Amino acid sequence: MANDSVCGLLGLALRASRLAVGDDPVHDLLGAGKARAVFLASDAGAGIVKKIARKTQEAGVPLLTLSETRAELGGALGRASCAVCATGDIGFAASAAKKLAPLSEDNAAAAALLGKKNTRIQERRAKPKKHRTGGGEPVTYIDIEEDDYERRFGKRDKK
After folding, report:
1. At what angle do helices 90-100 and 105-126 cross, to 10 degrees?
2. Which of 21, 42, 53, 153 is 20 to 30 A removed from 29 (C-alpha atoms)?
3. Quick check: pTM over 0.70?
């Protein structure tokens, strides 16, 4: 029951273009360093589990295991089957991890980590940005007299 909402959330992330679906797009997202969480179907093949586990560990990205099979996950995402998907959005990742936390201790640890990251990122986004000009000094404009301009830059065409 809880996973129905996770599949719905992943479907929403897909419609918002925040979800990479399939082996190659997930590898691309991990390689670019933009993945926040990777989701794995319960019946994913041993080869893909090994490959994705190694890539997520190298990238420092949490790997969350779903209770859905490839067919169920694919159905939720509008495909025939899907063994792996990943999101680059911290909000979607934290929300899905929170819903998956009761399934296993690994998912609970990942949910705690993503919750902390999400809080830190949201606090940083809420702070006003400091704007600087060039080297951080305020810009001062000088008033150039007409004859001073001609001396510096030559005769000005008057209309």
Report:
1. 150
2. 42
3. yes
Q: Judge whether 26 and 63 are in contact, CB under 8 Å.
A: no
Q: Distance (Å, rounded) from C-alpha 5 to C-alpha 19? A: 16
Amino acid at 104: S
* Count of C-beta atoms within a 10 Å radius of residue 78: 11
Output DSSP code: residue 16. T
Identify the CA nearest to 52 among candidates 67, 40, 66, 34. Answer: 40
Residue 152, token pair as written in the block: 């510096």
Residue 35: name the closest of 11, 55, 9 by CA.
55
Place of tokens 């295991």: 65
Bridge partners, residue 19, by sequence: 87
Indicate the SS3 state at residue 156.
coil
Report pLDDT digits (tens) over 5-27: 888 899 999 999 999 999 999 99
